[in-house]
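#onboarding

Welcome to the new folks! Below is a worked example of what a typical request in this channel looks like: someone posts a single protein sequence, and someone else replies with the predicted structure as tokens. Don't worry about understanding the tokens yet, we'll cover that in week two.

Example request:
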Amino acid sequence: MRNVWLLLAAGTLLLTWGGPIPAWAGQSFVAHMSLHMLVVALAAPLLAMGIAGSQLDPVSKVPVLFQPIPASLVEMIVVWIWHAPTMHHWAQGSSSGFAVEQTTFLLSGLWLWLSALGGTKSSGADKHSGIVASGDDRDRALAGLNQRRGAGVLALLLTSMHMTLLGALLLFSPRVLFAHHAEVHAHAADRQPDHSSATESILFDQQLGGAIMLVFGGAVYLLGGLWLTWRIVPSSPDSHPQSIEHVQSMDSTLSIHRGN
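Example response:
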């Protein structure tokens, strides 16, 4: 299944960066935001799902570098910096700025999703050596995994909140915030007898882009957090075989005492 996630991620990035959206993003804020969401809220989690738990999972090797809360804060800084008017203008006005923007979007998004989803490689047995871990080792591994998942829940919910906040600010802004898109549409405004209608069109484009971030970005991270929460809470008693064995052992002991 991991190969499927990786193929879907590669296909998403190929269509996102190799299709017409990057060219449209220079003229439309909606196209820019669609590009952004496809990278951080679709391609990045698909990549993380394909890598998590595999031999390529870096979280199992260097977990200290993949802490969910710090990763969430870094991604928040990256997103908000690139939506500052000056940085946004640079990214949309030059190929180098666009490349840096998209690279940091993907890397920060992948870092967050891997920090939340990674480190899930089974520690109950060493497949190569055939050595099975003790019950205490399994308990410690499960506790550590649940602790990481709990931090991942908080990180994804925090990201959902700041995505929603930034989207709301763009959606309800009463004025055009990005001069780049205003300049692109300047000639259109000159051709129209009512300049206010052109300004309203640019503002609507900006507000619609904010709505895309608010709805799509906020929802994806929220769903990711809810899914991780479900993974922490066992869905059935079968998910804790040790507990079942313990109960059976207690029942056997009680039966022996009753027989005596």
